[in-house]
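Long-time lurker. I teach an intro course on protein structure, and each term I like to show students one example going from raw sequence to a predicted 3D structure in token notation. This year I'd like something fresh instead of my usual example. Would anyone be willing to generate the tokens for the chain below so I can use it in lecture? Attribution to the forum is fine with me.
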Amino acid sequence: MNTIKIIVGLGNIGTKFIGSRHNIGSDYIYNLANYFKINLKKIEKLYSYIGSIYLYNKKIILLIPNSFVNNSGKSILLTSSFYKIHLNNILIIHDELDFFPGKIRFKYGGGSGGHNGLNDIIKTFNNNLFYRLRIGIGHPRNKSKINDFVLNKPTIIEKKIIYDAMKNIIDAVKIFINTNNYYKAMNYLHSK
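-- Reply from a regular --
Happy to contribute to a lecture. Here you go:
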């Protein structure tokens, strides 16, 4: 079983995107940083915002790419190369259109499901073997409205459901890191 050494949150960079559906991943990393009372620092050469936490005597790097979602691969590749960490030791947190708001699932490997950030990571690494944590944001039910939908903020009710679910994600990630057992963390999360 692979150990998680980097947790990445996908999102568009820029204050106007904070709190949007597409920024659920990066918002989660900010929540995690607050939970562990650390700051993320901008590292220009890695095109990233980075911080470190220590959990069960393991160093975990928190990463938000300093880019738009569609160009996430570069900063993740640069950071993983700099720290000599393999792709299968990385957990990517991202929004999931195909899930109702607040539904959360782990996944390992597979395609991008049409998510442009995942597409870019798979293309950049020429590899799809990494962990994902998918946070449901719902779907506008009209393909032509997807772009506006993901760039806008969830409704007040959706936001409450999503952010209540984030507490379970922190617990699930802690289980994963403590036990190195993906299935144990997955079962915990899927029982919620």
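Some talking points for your students: The longest strand covers residues 48-55. DSSP finds six helices and seven strands in the chain.
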